[in-house]
Amino acid sequence: MKQLFLFITILVLNGFLSEKACAQEVSVILTTDESFSNRAIIDKMQRNLSQVLTEINRAQKENRLLNTVGLALDDFADRSLHMLWANIHFYCDDEEVVERCWVFGDGEEYMVSHIPLIIQMEGDEFGNGTYQEAVVDFDRQGRIKDFRFSLDAQLGESMEHCGVAEVEKRMKIRAYCERLQTAYNQKDIDFINQIFSDDALIITGTVVSVKPMEDRYANKLKVVYKKQNKEQYIANLKKAFLRNKWIDVKLSDIEENGNLPNACAGVTRSKINPNMFGVRLRQEWRSSNYSDVGYLFLLWDFTDEDKPVIHVRTWQPEFVGNVRQEPDVNISTLGAFDL
């Protein structure tokens, strides 16, 4: 009898701990440089982020919509978080998040990155349990102004080595790449439509099978490129959003072994127009009915730093058959577009 009682007690305790792990309250501790003395704003940001992460955990456990009433989110962050939640669920698996808070513009805005999340999509085993970090921006009052999925840390290092010396400039470029990545996960067609310039050029590579003239029995694989304008790209993207229950896009730095002559593997600043930046990334696209991996190139125009636009987007598959390809310098460098 005692053994039976002990067994039942262990089962109940394990169930309680498992439930707690997914619905746990999250405490947040933010660190800053010693020279930053506004402790009150740090306390407020800690409290606000803790409340948001705790609500995310509760909504995930109860399989419900987020309840953001009373949370310190501005309209943009609130809309962004709800759109993300409508397409993909996640939770914070850490009881305590300790991260650095970056201070910009003498306290005009703040940023916290490396917030640990676990992706959990109901009914779809593919993609469940995927680790993903988030980035949160705060305004000068400590209210959350953006919540987005982050890129990998190597991208920042790549920018520093490739002509983007200013820390705030690197952060801004990275932030907009993260917002673009998050927009695909949110199926936010309005943001994507807004971020591409009206004259944007989109080039997409597709692997096709062709028969060489000299051997009619042997097929050969090659990449064929297709051009689209912005209108065509947005129309096709809308169809993809409708076809897929969920979309999970991850952008990361291309490995340094990519042999790119006279080019950096991540972000390069134009020497002709210093407001133009070429961003080269590895893109993993996973969705409920389709997946692919390839190299993405984005030509960003930061002439208006508050409203940057993309003039060029190119994509090529990473593999043709079983052979890993290198990024094509004819479509993935500033030089390819006379910059």
What coarse outline follows from CA principal-axis ratios? globular
How many helices?
A: 7
Percent of residues in helices comes to 25-40%
Question: What Rg do the Cα atoms give?
Answer: 23 Å
Regarding CATH, which class of the largest domain? Alpha Beta
Task: Kindly name the structural category.
Answer: alpha+beta
CATH architecture of the largest domain: Roll
SSE order, one letter for each helix or strand: HEHHEEEEEHHHEEHEEEEEEE
Instruction: Tell me what portion of residues adopts beta-strand conformation.
Output: 25-35%
Query: Which consecutive residue ranges, at least 5 long each, have pLDDT under 50?
Result: 5-13, 15-22, 256-263
Count of domains: 2
Average residue-wise pLDDT: 83
What do we call the CATH topology of the largest domain? Nuclear Transport Factor 2, Chain: A
Number of strands: 15
